[in-house]
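User: I'm writing a short report section on ligand binding and want a predicted complex to refer to. Could you take this sequence and beta-D-fructofuranose and write out the structure as C-alpha cells? A short remark afterwards would be nice.
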Amino acid sequence: MTTDCWRMGFHIMPPTGWLNDPNGLCQFHGIYHVFHQYSPDWPAPGAPRGWGHATSRDLIHWEHHGMAIRPDTPDEAQGSYSGCAVRVGTGADEHLRFYYTGNVKEPGDFDYIHTGRRAAQLLIESPDGFELGEKRVLLRNEDYPANCTLHVRDPKVWVDADGTWWMLLGARDVDDCGMVLVLSSADGIAWTVVREIYPCAPFGFMWECPDRIELDGHVYLSCCPQGMAAFPWASGMRDVAGYFPLPEGADLSTFDQAIPAESFRLWDHGFDFYAPQTFTDEQGRTLLIGWMGMPEAPYESAPDNLSWCHCLTVPRVLTRQADGVIAQAPAPELDGLHEQEEALVANDTSVLSGHRHDLVIEGIDDPFSLTLDDELEIVFEDGSLTLRFTARGTASIGAGRTERSCAVENLSDVRVLVDSSAVEVFANGGRIVFATRWFPCADTCIVRLVGSTPSARAWRMGDGMRGTYA
Ligand code: FRU
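Assistant: Sure. The C-alpha cells for the complex follow:
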C-alpha cells in the first residue's frame, strides 16, 4: 500500500498542497461550485492562501480547476481569505458575486491583532463562476466599529425579500470577545455597519466564518468561536464550530439582543470539522459543507509526508427537527456511488474489500458497537455515543486522535461513510455527527458489528474522483 490509498473517492481534497475552509458555495445553472482555501505550494512555509475551485453536476463526480482567486493584489498579499457567493440579477443579467476577505500582514514586529494587519472585504463579479471580473475593495479596517481589533473577516452575504443586502462579518473586539458585525446595503456595494451581535456571556475571543441559516422559517447563526478550550464540551480544542438558534420569529437583520451562549450546539463531535458554510441549491435544499480539519490540533492530517493536507466533508442536507436541532444527512446523491451490496453480519465480523463504504445500521437496540479494522470504534455505552481509536490499534492509524463522545439517551440508527482516510458518522437521523480522518494501511476493511438484531446493510462505494486526482 502506498499513501495513494488515502486519496479520496467522494470528498473534495486538494490535488496537492493545503486545503482549509469551503468558500463561495453555490449552484448556478445546474453546476455546483465549491471553492476552498487553497495553498498549492504547501508545505513551503508562508505560502499565502487563495481560493481553489471544484465543480460538479451531481455532488459526487468533481472536477478540480486549480486556483481561482489568487492573492495577487496589495489588499490580499497574505491571503485571499474566506468568503461566500451570492446569485444576483435575473434572466440574461443573472450572475454571481463573490465576497471575501483580503488579509495583509505588514512586515515588522507586530501582534497582528491590534497592529500590523489589514482586513479588507473584496468583491468579484462573475458571469458563470468560472470567469472572474476585477477585484473591488468594499470595506477596510477604518470602516469597522472602533471597538474592533484588526481581526474582521469571512463575509457571508444574503439579500432579503425586500431587496436589502445583508452581510455578517466575524470579529474580535478590543477586549478579546468574539462577536459578529451585521452590515446592510442597498446595492451590495456600499455597506454600513448596523449592529454588533454579542453573546450574553464571553464565548471565545474571535468568531470566524459566521453564517445565516434559515430552515422552515427559523433562523440560526452559525459561527466558529476561537478560544474555547476551557469549556468542558470543547474536548480541549481551542476552536469549535456550532450554531445558535435565534428566538422564534427573529432574524439576524433585526436581532438586537445578546445571544444566549448556552443555546450553542456543536455541528460535529468528531476530530476534524471546522469552518462550515451553507448554501441553498436550485432544488431549494440547504446544504452544508465543512472543512475536515482544524486550525490547531494536536494530531496529524498529513502523515508519512503526504503531498496534500485535509479535505472537505461530503455535502450534508440540513433539516430542522421539532426541537430546533438541525439534522445533517449525506446528500442523497451519494447513493449514486453505491456499487455492489456487501454482507454485513450482526454480532460477527465482515471483511469488506477496500476502504470506500457506506454502512447503514437501523433499528438499533442496546448495546451497539461498530469497529473498523479493530482500530476505530463507534460505541453506544453509558448514555454516550463515542468515537474511539482503540488501544489495540496501531498508534499511527489515528495519527494522534484518541476519543470523542456525545451524550445521547437512545441510539436508533448509525450511518458511516468510509472514504479512504475520511470517516463521517451520522447517528439518530443525523442529529449527532462525527467526522474524523484516519489512516488505515490494510487493503480490506474489517467491520465488527455488535448489536441486537439491527438491520445492517453495506455498500462498496465507487471512486467519484477517479479522473480528478488520479
Ligand atoms: C478559518 C479561517 C478564516 C480565514 C481562513 C484563512 O479556518 O481562519 O477565518 O478566512 O481560515 O485561511
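A remark for your report: The chain has a mean pLDDT of 95. The radius of gyration is 22 Å.
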